[in-house]
Amino acid sequence: MSSLSEAELDALVAEAVVDCYDEHEQLSGLFVMIQDNLAVPFATEVLGVPVVVRKVDLRSSGIVAICHRGRMRQAIGILDLPLPDPAPDGAQWIEAYQWWAGR
C-alpha cells in the first residue's frame, strides 16, 4: 500500500516525464529520478537473504536494483524488491514508478 496519495503520485510521475514523448522516454525519466534520489547503499532481504542494494540500473526489462551479498551480485526488478522499514530516502520515486507501471 502506498504511503502517498494518488495526487502526490501523479505529481511525481508528471515531474519525471515532463519532457518525454513516448513510454521508453518516460521509463528513462523515472529511472533518472530513482537513480538521483534513492539513497544507496541500503540493506534489505531478498527471499530471506540479507543483501545490500548499491545502485539501480535501467535494463530492457525495466528498472532493477543491483543487490550484493559478499562477492555475488544479482539484478532484481525494483518493483519486486522488498524495501526495509523504514524505507530509504527517495523511495517515493519507486512508488511513483509502480504507479506509472500500473502495479
Descriptive keywords:
four-stranded antiparallel β-sheet; alpha+beta; 4 strands; 103 residues
Individual helix count: 3
**Cα separation of the termini:** 11 Å
Mean pLDDT equals 94
- As a percent range, the share of strand residues is 25-35%
What string, H for helix and E for strand, traces the elements in order? HHEEEEH
Q: Helix share of residues?
A: 25-40%
- Residue ranges: pLDDT <50 for 5 or more in a row? none
What's the count of strands? 4
Structural class: alpha+beta
Q: Summarize the main sheet.
A: 4 strands, antiparallel
Please tell me what the overall shape is: globular
What is the topology, as strand order, of the major beta sheet?
1-2-3-4
* Radius of gyration over all CA atoms, rounded: 13 Å
Protein name: Calcium binding
Describe this protein's structure.
With 103 residues, this protein is an alpha+beta fold. It is 35% helix and 29% strand. The chain has helices at residues 6-16, 23-37, 92-101; strands at 42-46, 49-59, 62-69, 72-77. The protein has a 4-stranded antiparallel beta sheet with strand order 1-2-3-4. Strand 2 (49-59) and strand 3 (62-69) form a beta hairpin. It is globular. The mean pLDDT is 94. This is Calcium binding. It comes from Plantactinospora alkalitolerans.
